[in-house]
Structure formats: C-alpha cells, structure tokens
Amino acid sequence: VLPLSRGSLDWDEPLLVANLSERINACHIGCQDLESVNSTCDERCNSLVAIDSCIQGCRAVTDIFLHQIQDLLYHVSISIDGEDAQGISTTWKLDEVYSTVISEISAADIQWAVHSRPFGSGAPWQITVLEEKAFKEDSMQSKIVVPSEFANEIEVRLCIFWRSNMVVSRSIRQSIVGSGGRPHAPKLIAQLQISTNSYVICWSSPLPRLYKVSLFLLDGTLVSSTETSDTCFLFKNIPSDNCCRANIGYATLNESSIDVANAAQLVFTNGTAIMKLYDVDDYVVLTNPKAIPFDLAPGRTITALCSISIDRILVALDDGSIFWLSIIDAANGLVRQPDGVAITHMDVDYLQQKVYAVLHKKGIVRCDLMDCSNSTTLTTNSINFIEYISVDSWNGFIYCITNGGEVFSAPLFPLYAPSTLSFPTTEQINDAGSSFALEVDHENSQLIFVSQNGSILSMSTIDRSISDLRSSYELSDQYKSVLKAHFAKNRLFWTSSNCGDSHPWDSCLYSEEWDSEKKKIHLNRYLYAGRVVDFTFLRNGSFPPTLLPPSTIGLITSADSALVTWDAPLSMPFQGLGVDWRNLRYECRVMNENDEESAKAELTHLDGTSLMVSVSPGVQYHATVRACVMTVCSPFASAINSAFAPFNGLTPI
C-alpha cells in the first residue's frame, strides 16, 4: 500500500522511488516515533528515500496511541466528595480493565487535567491540572479540587495532553451547592442614549439571575437603580447633561455590586511554566495558581508575556520566538520564528492589531497578532538600547525606556511600514527622570512611570504635565528595583528584584493594597514560592469612544455619475502627525432624494479617499462618509448636490 499525502490528489514522488522492502523498513522507522517525548518524525524520515512511507508510520502510531487514550476516557466516572471555599473535591475513577492501557500511556509524557464550567452556560472551560503521579502506582482513581462555580450544576470532563494533542472524555453533568463559587460578572454588550431623556443598556451573563442595574452620572452620582430578570433595561427621565455610565450586579448577593468589567485575572510565568493567580488579593497564595498547559522545548525559557484578549495571550521565548496561547483550551500556535535574539518585553496596539516586541539590545520588531511574516524591525544603538516600551495606540506614540533609564517618545510605526525602519524623530521626557517601567493608561489619558527614585509619576497624554500619582497618600515603602509593571483599576502591580532575605529567587511579585479609609497604601509582596519573570492581565483591548469625522467632504456630479471625495480626520494637537499610523477605514454612502441607497462602499486607507458612483439625471443626492477604526466610528460628514438634468438639445457639428 503506497501512502497518499494528506490533502493530495496525486503522489508527490514516483511510485518506484523505493521498492517494497525499503518502504516497509521506512514505515517501521516511522513507527518508532513514540519512543521520544516530542515527535522526531522529521529527523527520522528526511534522510530516507521513502519519506512518505516513514511519515505514514509516524501517523499510524500516533493515531493508535490517541485512540487508546480516547477509548480509556470513554469509560471514566466521577463522584463529588464535597465543597468548600477552596473548591469542589472530585474523585475520578477508571475501569480496572484498562490498567494495562494506563500503564502504557503513562510511560509517555502525558499530562492529566480536568475541564470544568457551569452547566449549560457555554462559558470557557477552566483547566485544573492533576499532579504528575495521577493514575500511577497501580491506582485507578485520582482526586482533584476544581474551582467552585456560581451555579446549581456543573459539567466536567477528564482530558489528557500529549505533545500538541488534547483528548477529552464526554462531558459529565453534576449537581452542586454552588455557594462557594464566585459569580461570573455580567458583561455589558450595548448601551445607548436613544433620546434626550432615555438610556438603554443590554448585557449577557453565563447564568440567568435577578440583576441589579444602576445608572450613574459621569461624576459618580447615582441616577437610578432597579432590579430585573431581563437582559435589557430602559432608563427613563434621565438628566440631559453629564450622563451616563451603567453598572450591573446580582440582586441576590449580599455583597456589594459586581462591576460590569471582569475581575482582574493575573497570568504570570516563572520562566518555564505559565500560571494564573486565582485571587489578586490573596497575598499568601493559599490556593495554588492554576497551571496553563504550554509545551516548552528543552532548554528554552519564557521571557515575556502579553495579553491579546480576555482569553488569549502572547508568549515570548529567549530564542526570539513568539507563540499565541489560548487560556481556555491551551491551544497555541507559532507567531514568530526564532532568530536567536531574546524578546524581553511586549505590548499590543489594539487599533493597528499589531504586537511590538523588544529585542534584547537590538531594537523593536512589530508583528501581526497571529503571524510575523510581514514584520517591521527597528534597530537601535547597541550602547543606548531600548529595554521597555508602552504603546499609545489612541494618540500615535510609542514610549520607550533605555538601558540608562531615560524616557523618550517616538511616532508609532506606520501601519504599512517597510521591513526595516528608523524613528524619524524622538523626544526625550526629561521631567520623568530615570525610570524602571512605564505603561499607558488610556482610560485616564495618562502615562504611568515607575521612577528609579521610588515614586510613581503620571504624565498627561494631553498636555504632557507630570505629577506624583501617590503624593496624597501615605506609602508603607518605596517602589524598589522594579522590573515589570502593570496598572489595573488604579492599582499598581509589579515585579522586583528586591525580594528580601527570605525569598531566594531573583524576582518576585508585588502589588498595592489600600487601607479601609483609602489613605494609606501598603506595598505587599505575594508569598509565591518561586520566581516571577513576567506577568500580564487578561483583558480585551480598549478603544477610544469615538473618532473625529473626515475633515472635509465634497460631492461633484454630472448627468450620470458622481464623485465623492473627502480628507482624512484631522489629528488633535496632542496626537501624532498624519494618518499613516492609523488603521482607518471609511464607510461611504450615497442616497437619492427619496432616501434610497444608490451606492455603499467600505474603503481602507490604501483605497484612497474618493468614490465614483453612477447617478440618475436631475436627482438630488446626499453623500455621507465616516471614519472607523475597528468597531469605533466617527459621526458622518455629509455633502449634497444634484445631478445635471438630461441634455435634450441638438448636438452641435
């Protein structure tokens, strides 16, 4: 039997390139692929004549092994042993008939884990990794505590990770008390002021509950509050000024209202593994962080993390490679090939949909979020090199810290930049002094510096004024030897090399903790037994609430055609010059005098700023154009003109 490559309709090489005995031998060589931790199929097969037969052997043993695992997981059972504040205690049992199979697959480098979530919610699976000795030592059962859920029922399944594969059992439905689980916060999906005195909000939630909805003025004053079991609510008779901000919580909870935004989820790495902290207020780390499966090649080290969204991160290694990783199911993929230069820091531009990564002592590389084949590299001075960056995607700047602690700003890379680039201009921010780390806070229009003198500074991204962010509060200590820092809900989290005599590792995690009166801030170290190389918060990208419309628009008509032209939105005085850094698209519509749509088009920045359409003679037309970035759009700019009347006279000769 001669193998046919997957997806092929014909054989890639002549059938007589190898005889039968050579093909059988090549297949046997491929069948030895299970002997190593990771697949060595390419190395085994590339030196052979019958490569396809060797690959056939690799695939055959892989399929057999995966089918063994799948058959085993089909016969698993579970029992609930109890619930407490730590979680739901479960016992997983396998049939005694499969003891030999368990021994065989346990010889391979497999990882057991449990998926759990509220039943019927469609929420992402939570992954709880079993200890390494699970189902070993002739044991046909294993105990594991999975996270509590705010639900009456949960669904769970046992899974096995092997190489890049994940095999799962059927989903098993179990009844629970649910008192120990934290609620899944409702998510605001739409809000709109639909008239001068009415405001509507809609939200989604994994589980139906009685909700408490509140409306506030922008200064925090409560306007209205009520309870409802629906997922949309209309506020009436609201003030016309300084309005509005919505908040949704669960009415049945005795605790304070839950914010619409998801609770901060901190993911960190010790250099060899990736973990999620269950509770950012648990400084003692009573609950072990949840491991997020990620296959790391031998000898490699994780050097940087960066959040793409609420359920996906980027992982950078010391060889220059970048991977995307799903927090939900541990799926991952290669974004950037290794080049031997370590990546030390990353930041995402959510408007450009790009990631900026710092190359150790080399410069900055920019890639797409899922692929780096069309990258742009900026090379810097090897003596005064860039160590830290933060991207201001709203205003068109990238802020950098050099190895000497100097802070400067530079224009963002153009959206369609060449493969190599240099900063056209840079501006040093002298008032910032020497800094350890920085981060743009879009919500409050500020750039946060952690200064080397032990303080936190804030620079307005509007007028560039600088102030001490914590001057009004009493601090328990200074911010010392900061390595990485993130700002979340007016609270600083950071890693430091100043870990104390009792901490043998070279970097540890800290965060601010406010006292009950909000007058004093304690700088607390997390008692995690290990080093913390980098960390990030799982969060979706933030977009500006609106854009400026096209600065001018024109509509030129003839008897049968019309040309709509417009200019790009103007930049505000505090923004970067031009529009090359903006990921703009334009929506253009042409309507006739009867409000019938004559033409509609969506154009990118590369398509230009004009549109030619056909029109009918003697009819008045209304053209509108707006600028958009991702899901954010400007108001429409408009122009009106009438097509020429049809020419009925004699044509002169």
From TrEMBL:
What InterPro entries does its record include? 6-blade_b-propeller_TolB-like, FN3_dom, FN3_sf, Ig-like_fold, Roller3_N
What's the superkingdom here? Eukaryota
Which residue numbers delimit the Roller-3 N-terminal domain? 1-57
Transmembrane region positions? none
**What protein does this entry describe?**
Receptor protein-tyrosine kinase
Organism the protein comes from: Toxocara canis
